[in-house]
């Protein structure tokens, strides 16, 4: 895969190196030797060295004296020799340690200098990197702050535009509301004018009819109507009174029925309780009878049997008497019930009779009222016939006025038709201009979207939706930013690709191969894949036969970048394989048919695939994509080759597709111009339409005026015709009313007769009910006598039974007790049965009473409803009479006041017409305000859309991506400049980090040797210090021992007299003469003296820096 490697960037500039460890200056020690020799001729044991100053230090040092003892008189003892040997050994150890320290110091100095330099370089790189990190952070913060500022300004601008739009919309709504109000005012004014016209026409008609004869007739009709009204009022008052009486009777009947219903409910409860008591008494009686039977079974003897027979006979007689009594009481109850029933029937019949009598009275009142109406109807008929003749003459004059008004109206209609045709044409022109403007507006809006500013918009423009979908589909793996001018889908890069496509065909043509066509789908694949290869040096998963290249500019011939190098490799391999010189048009076939031979030469498709793809003999179409985002390289070029014959894709020549592409770009650039032209045209068309609309309004006004003349004439004619018709109708109506009135008289008389007949029938019913009641009462008296007789007989039979039981008790106490219990149970049962019978009778009576009261209530309701109907009818008649009187009185008044009413109606009509004109002008002004408000809304909407688009564009910016890539298609120059600074700062940070890592690596590489040398030097120095300390410790020990020994000798000498003791000077001389000659006594620094016969040689110890110092 052909590509060029980028240049490496060098890190420039330097910083102060970081402080590192520096070696301390070692103190060099010089040792002056002192030899301890035993005065008895002892051998030299070892040199004793003193520490000397650095050669550079010339300051005199104070000496620290240390004694070395040797035996002065006799041979040195073994202890003295041992001490001397220890000193010599320790000194030798010091010398060895010093030598090792010097070697370690030399090794340390060798590695310390380069290590320090590398450490300084690392510190400089660290400082540079820290500064670049800060710069990068500041650059990113600046970019984010600028984006936030622009976003805040855009949000404020959008909010302001939105508020302006809202205000404009509010004004438009207010203007529309005002226009609606003005329209309502106009409608109301027109309605008021119509009402005024109607009143005027009525006044005109009244004035025309206001002859003395008409006034007289009208006044008479009003007087007749007044009389009829008075009669209707009287009839209404009578009906209302009868209704009140009937309603009062209904209320009383309702109360009686409610009371009877309550009594019935109580009787039903008492009957139910009585039934329960009978059941309980029967049970007790049955139990007592069983006990009595058991007692009787145990009784014996003929006397007992005779007594028992008497009891049984008495009991049987009593039972028969009670049955007779019960039958008599039942007959009495039935008789009483029949009496009550007959009484209720009589009461109902009497109520019905009274109702029928009231009906007769009401019917007689109706006859009187009907006759009064009939008389009035006859009078109205006479007046109506006279008025009809007068109206016929007036109608003829009105017809002539109508004909003249219609002729003038026809001329105005023609003018209006012409004006409306002109307006319709102008309105249609506005509609067409609006559609053109909307189309241009939509195109302009679409042209500003990210998709429109990318190849997606172009593909949709030519109908290649599959190509657009390919870009969307492949974006899951190919990082695509629609609208980014550096993206593979940008229009700028797409335009560049046409030249690159021609490079491919130029080469193919030069080697005898056919030129390839182009498809939108192949272009989309290549453009999408170029986004992948921008961030990854490789091919997208969606790649087919694909070539990719990375380069610094678009000027190079990328086709040769793919071909030249690989063709040479191919040709060399073919020659070595013995295939000869293979022409490019045969290369594809040769390679695949001789794969083994090429493989033997180490040449595979991965080596020469770019060349082979371009020279495919069967290739049919291709696509090309260019990405200039510069993530890895400034430009990425991707070529897609397709040899799939029979594909569904539409094929274009390069020129054809580029021509369509240019048309698309031209359409984007011309969209705003077309929109402006469309807007100007729309405004002109609206102005023309408004002018034509005004012309229509003028024509409509004229038509309205002429129509008003026609309407007035027609109204006048209609009024006259109406008057004629009304007069004719009045005649017909009067005739009908007279006929109806006469019919009502006859009907009322018939109703009186029917009501009187009903009264006679009701009287017969009452008499019959009275006779039936009397018969029932007589029957009840007979039934009462039978009950009284039966009760007396029952008492006799009860006494006989008691006597028989007393006699029976004489023969058996058990039977007597059982008999007594049975008698009591029987008595209780009888009482319960009697109470049940009484309750049943009360219940039956209550049921009959409730039924009778219900019937009386229904009769009262029917009577009340009839009276209500009569009252309603009377009310209706009264209303009719009132209306008739009001109408006739108004007519009479109108005729009497016709002249004044006409003047008032004419003034009112004039005011109403003026109000219509004023309302029309106000509505026209309101409509103009709507037009102005709509234009303001349109302008505000455009401004709001623009602000929203700007805000949307800002919101679509991926700040983090812009910071990472250096630009964003939707960012302005200021923000993109900051994005570019971020990329530069990030690159500087990257470079500084690389330099820091390299410097750290160099330092890390030198650290082990440096650490080892430093540790070695510190260890050697520590050993030297330890050796010196051991020597000092030994000298201190020997000094203490010598001091002790000397003190012992002094003590001993003080105890003995001194004899032959040499002077100090002689002692010193003797000591010196006893030492062997070395050629230079000056080599022994210090002072020799004798203490207790031991020669002491002092050695001077010199320390640098005038004091002891531990390194």
What does this structure look like?
With 1111 residues, the chain is mainly α. Helix content is 78%, strand content 3%. It contains 17 helices and eight strands. It has helices spanning 78-209, 212-298, 302-447, 455-461, 465-474, 491-510, 520-535, 558-576, 584-593, 595-600, 605-614, 654-809, 813-896, 898-955, 959-965, 973-1055, 1064-1074; strands spanning 69-71, 517-519, 545-551, 621-627, 635-642, 651-652, 1088-1091, 1094-1097. It has a five-stranded mixed beta sheet with strand order 3-5-4-2-6. The chain has a three-stranded antiparallel beta sheet with strand order 1-8-7, covered by helices on one side. Helix 1 packs antiparallel against helix 16 (973-1055). It is flat and about 185 Å long.
Structure in a nutshell:
With 1111 residues, this protein is mainly alpha-helical. It has helices at 78-209, 212-298, 302-447, 455-461, 465-474, 491-510, 520-535, 558-576, 584-593, 595-600, 605-614, 654-809, 813-896, 898-955, 959-965, 973-1055, 1064-1074, and strands spanning 69-71, 517-519, 545-551, 621-627, 635-642, 651-652, 1088-1091, 1094-1097.
Number of helices: 17
The biggest beta sheet is recorded as: 5 strands, mixed
How far do the termini sit from each other?
66 Å
How are the strands of the largest sheet arranged?
3-5-4-2-6
Helix content: over 70%
The succession of helices and strands, N to C, reads EHHHHHHEHEHHHHEEEHHHHHHEE
Radius of gyration: 73 Å
Question: pLDDT average, as an integer?
Answer: 83
Number of strands: 8
Shape: flat
The portion of residues forming beta strands comes to under 5%
Structural class: mainly alpha
**pLDDT < 50 stretches:** 1-76, 1058-1111
């Amino acid at each position: 895969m052909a590509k060029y490697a980028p240049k490496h960037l060098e890190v420039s500039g330097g910083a102060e190196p970081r402080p590192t460890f520096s070696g301390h200056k070692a103190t060099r020690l010089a040792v002056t030797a002192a030899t301890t020799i035993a005065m008895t001729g002892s051998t030299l044991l070892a040199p004793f060295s003193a520490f000397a100053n650095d050669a550079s230090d010339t300051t005199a040092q104070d000496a620290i004296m240390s004694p070395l003892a040797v035996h002065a008189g006799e041979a040195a003892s073994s202890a003295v020799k041992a001490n001397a040997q220890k000193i010599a050994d320790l000194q030798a150890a010091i010398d060895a340690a010093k030598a090792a320290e010097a070697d370690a110091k030399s090794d340390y100095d060798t590695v310390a200098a380069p290590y320090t330099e590398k450490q300084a370089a690392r510190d400089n790189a660290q400082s540079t990197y820290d500064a670049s990190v800060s710069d990068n952070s500041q650059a990113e913060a600046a970019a984010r702050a600028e984006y936030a500022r622009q976003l805040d300004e855009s949000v404020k601008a959008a909010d302001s535009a939105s508020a302006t739009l809202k205000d404009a919309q509010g004004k438009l709504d207010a203007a529309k509301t005002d226009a609606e109000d003005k329209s309502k005012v106009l409608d109301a004014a027109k309605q008021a004018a119509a009402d005024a016209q109607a009143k005027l026409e009525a006044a005109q008609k009244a004035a025309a009819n206001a002859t003395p004869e008409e006034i007289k007739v009208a006044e008479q009709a009003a007087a007749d109507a007044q009389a009829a009204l008075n009669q209707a009022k009287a009839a209404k008052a009578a009906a209302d009174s009868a209704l009140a009486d009937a309603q009062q009777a209904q209320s009383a009947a309702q109360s009686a029925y409610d009371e009877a219903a309550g009594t019935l409910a109580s009787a039903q409860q008492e009957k139910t309780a009585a039934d329960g008591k009978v059941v309980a008494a029967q049970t007790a009686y049955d139990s007592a009878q069983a006990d009595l039977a058991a007692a009787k079974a145990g009784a014996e003897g003929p006397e007992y049997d005779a007594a028992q027979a008497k009891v049984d006979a008495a009991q049987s007689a009593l039972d028969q008497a009670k049955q007779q009594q019960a039958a008599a009481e039942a007959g009495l109850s039935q008789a009483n019930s029949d009496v009550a029933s007959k009484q209720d029937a009589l009461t109902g019949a009497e109520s019905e009779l009274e109702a029928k009598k009231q009906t007769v009275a009401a019917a007689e009142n109706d006859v009187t009222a009907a006759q009064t109406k009939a008389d009035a109807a006859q009078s109205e008929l006479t007046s109506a016939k006279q008025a009809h003749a007068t109206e016929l003459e007036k109608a003829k004059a009105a017809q002539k006025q109508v004909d003249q008004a219609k002729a003038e109206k026809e001329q105005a209609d023609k003018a209006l038709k012409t004006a409306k045709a002109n307006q319709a044409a102008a309105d249609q022109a506005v509609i067409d201009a609006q559609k053109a403007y909307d189309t241009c507006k939509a195109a302009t809006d679409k042209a500003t979207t990210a998709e429109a500013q990318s190849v997606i918009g172009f593909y949709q423009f030519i109908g290649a939706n599959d190509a657009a979908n390919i870009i969307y589909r492949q974006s899951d793996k190919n990082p695509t930013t629609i609208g980014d001018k550096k993206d593979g889908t940008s229009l700028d890069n797409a335009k560049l690709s046409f030249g690159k496509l021609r490079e491919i065909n130029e080469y193919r043509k030069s080697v005898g191969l056919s030129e390839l066509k182009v498809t939108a789908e192949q272009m989309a694949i290549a453009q999408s894949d170029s986004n992948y290869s921008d961030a990854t040096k490789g091919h997208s998963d969606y790649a087919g036969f694909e070539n990719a290249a990375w380069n610094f500019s678009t000027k190079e011939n990328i086709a040769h970048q793919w071909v030249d190098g690989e063709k040479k490799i191919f040709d060399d391999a073919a020659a070595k394989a013995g295939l000869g010189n293979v022409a490019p048009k045969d290369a594809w076939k040769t390679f695949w048919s001789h794969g083994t031979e090429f493989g033997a030469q180490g040449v595979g498709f991965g080596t020469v695939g770019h060349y082979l793809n371009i020279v495919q003999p069967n290739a049919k179409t291709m696509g090309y994509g260019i990405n200039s985002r510069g993530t890895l390289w400034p430009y990425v070029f991707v070529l897609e080759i397709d040899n799939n014959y029979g594909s569904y894709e539409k094929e274009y020549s390069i020129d054809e597709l580029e021509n369509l592409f240019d048309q698309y770009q031209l359409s984007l650039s011309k969209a705003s111009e077309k929109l402006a032209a469309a807007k100007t045209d729309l405004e002109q068309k609206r102005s023309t339409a408004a002018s034509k609309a005004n012309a229509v309004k003028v024509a409509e006004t004229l038509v309205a005026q002429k129509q008003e003349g026609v309407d007035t004439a027609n109204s006048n004619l209609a009024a006259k015709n109406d008057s004629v018709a009304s007069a004719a109708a009045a005649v017909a109506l009067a005739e009908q009313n007279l006929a109806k009135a006469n019919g009502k008289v006859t009907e009322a008389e018939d109703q009186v007769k029917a009501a009187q007949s009903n009264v006679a029938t009701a009287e017969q019913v009452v008499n019959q009910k009275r006779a039936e009641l009397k018969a029932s009462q007589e029957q009840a008296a007979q039934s009462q006598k039978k009950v009284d007789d039966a009760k007396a007989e029952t008492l006799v039979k009860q006494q006989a039974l008691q006597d028989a039981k007393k006699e029976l008790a004489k023969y058996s106490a058990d039977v007597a007790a059982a008999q007594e219990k049975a008698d009591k149970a029987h008595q209780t049962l009888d009482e319960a049965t009697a109470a049940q019978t009484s309750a049943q009778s009360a219940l039956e009576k209550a049921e009959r009473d409730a039924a009778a009261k219900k019937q009386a209530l229904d009769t009262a309701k029917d009577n009340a409803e009839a009276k209500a109907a009569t009252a309603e009818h009377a009310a209706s008649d009264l209303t009719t009479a009132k209306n008739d009187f009001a109408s006739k009185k108004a007519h009479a008044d109108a005729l009497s006041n016709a002249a004044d009413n006409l003047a008032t109606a004419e003034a009112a009509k004039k005011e109403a017409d003026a109000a219509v004109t004023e309302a029309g002008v106000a509505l026209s002004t309101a409509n103009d305000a709507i037009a102005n408000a709509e234009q303001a809304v349109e302008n505000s909407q455009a401004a709001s859309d623009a602000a929203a688009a700007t805000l949307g564009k800002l919101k679509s910016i991926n700040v983090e991506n812009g910071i990472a890539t250096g630009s964003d298609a939707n960012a302005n120059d200021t923000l993109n400049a900051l994005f570019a600074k971020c990329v530069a700062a990030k690159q500087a940070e990257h470079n500084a980090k690389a330099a820091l890592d390299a410097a750290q690596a160099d330092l890390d590489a030198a650290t082990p040797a440096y650490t080892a040398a430093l540790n070695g030097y510190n260890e050697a120095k520590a050993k030297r210090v330890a050796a010196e300390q051991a020597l000092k410790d030994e000298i201190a020990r020997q000094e203490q021992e010598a001091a002790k020994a000397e003190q012992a000798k002094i003590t001993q000498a003080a105890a003995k007299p001194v004899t032959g003791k040499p002077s100090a000077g002689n002692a010193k001389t003797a000591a010196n003469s006893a030492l062997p000659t070395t050629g230079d006594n000056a080599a022994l620094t210090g002072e020799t003296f004798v203490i207790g016969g031991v020669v002491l040689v002092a050695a001077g110890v010199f320390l640098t820096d005038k004091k002891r110092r531990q390194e």
